[in-house]
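To illustrate the input format used throughout this study, we show a single complete record. The first block contains the structure-token representation of the backbone; no residue identities are included at this stage. The design step must infer an amino acid for every position from geometry alone.
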């Protein structure tokens, strides 16, 4: 099968497995795993943050950020397409006792007009708004990225309103590839950042929360409470470090292949795509004449897997296991279906 369901399905390469086997490990709950300690320092410095904390998943990274930035009864703001709202099983309410207020942005991104009058807390009967949650690139928004100007404006607004910013950077590597924004800039505009190594970069597992030393120390305790304290985690950190050093340069090819396939959809009669939204490795397209599930069945019959993203919307996500030959097969299949 040509698997375009997600960039999380990639498997470790032989060289990545070799890096894992050579990792010097210890007990991370005791703070003695030198590989993960060094990797945390490395990624924190990359983003201009004081400290980092390796965690099993992006969801845990996001939820730890919410936990250390809020108190029970507070409110966080997020676009209605945001991952924290859609894909984290109500964890912000369950784990931190906060209210999630969704806003209607554009392509999963928030902006100043949307945020302008969103802050609450002046009256006893209102929740206190504490955090603006951003996602870069956006998943349900189709891989769209924030520009430097957009993030600077939101940062200025947050400072004025005494709000914190959490950046869900599950696909931050794709966003940086597409926008050429230096990672330290994200550290300047964010109070907390969650970055993932198991999506576009292809590590088998792992994310990292980045913030101040004080917040990371607090997050470390909650990580243990929530069952995320791992032992010889240097094995996973070594895989993530290898992915960061060797697979980041592959991302432009993923973006190029997504655009190649999108062009075939754009030229078809019964499929539709907004080429202006296509910035990274996520391709969202619509079915015009039949439900998404019907098109997915046809694709599966041709050995191609994608996933539904709505009644008439399909997502294809490109990654390093997809070859140029795979792309030609996908293009041919979509051209036939789209007649």
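Output of the design step:
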């Amino acid at each position: 099968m040509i698997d375009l369901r997600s960039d999380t399905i990639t498997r470790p390469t032989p060289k990545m497995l070799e890096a894992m086997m050579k990792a010097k490990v210890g007990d991370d709950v005791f703070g003695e795993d030198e590989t993960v300690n060094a990797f945390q320092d490395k990624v924190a410095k990359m983003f201009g943050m004081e400290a980092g904390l390796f965690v099993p998943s992006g969801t845990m990274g996001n939820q730890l950020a919410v936990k250390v930035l809020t108190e029970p009864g507070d409110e966080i703001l997020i676009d209605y397409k945001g991952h924290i709202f859609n894909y984290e099983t109500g964890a912000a309410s369950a784990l931190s006792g906060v209210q999630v207020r969704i806003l209607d942005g554009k392509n999963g991104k928030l902006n100043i007009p949307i945020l302008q009058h969103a802050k609450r807390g002046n009256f006893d009967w209102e929740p206190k708004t504490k955090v603006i949650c951003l996602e870069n690139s956006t998943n349900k928004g189709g891989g769209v990225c924030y520009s430097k100007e957009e993030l600077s404006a939101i940062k200025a607004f947050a400072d004025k309103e005494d709000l914190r910013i959490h950046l869900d950077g599950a696909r931050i590597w794709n966003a940086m590839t597409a926008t050429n924004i230096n990672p330290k800039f994200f550290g300047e505009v964010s109070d907390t950042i969650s970055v993932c190594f198991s999506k576009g970069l292809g590590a088998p597992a792992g994310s990292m929360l980045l913030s101040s030393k004080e917040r990371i120390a607090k997050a470390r305790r909650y990580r243990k409470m929530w069952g995320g304290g791992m032992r010889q985690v240097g094995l996973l950190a070594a895989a993530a470090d290898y992915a960061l050093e060797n697979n980041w340069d592959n991302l432009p090819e993923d973006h190029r292949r997504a655009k190649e396939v999108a062009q075939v959809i754009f030229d078809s009669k019964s499929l539709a795509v907004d080429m202006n939204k296509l910035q990274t490795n996520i391709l969202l397209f619509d079915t015009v004449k039949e439900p998404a599930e019907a098109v997915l069945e046809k694709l599966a019959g041709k050995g191609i897997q994608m996933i539904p993203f709505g009644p008439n919307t399909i997502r294809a996500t490109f990654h390093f296991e997809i070859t140029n030959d795979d792309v030609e097969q996908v293009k041919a299949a979509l051209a036939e279906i789209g007649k």
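Structural context for interpreting the output: The mean pLDDT is 97. Residues 185 and 228 are 29 Å apart (CA to CA).
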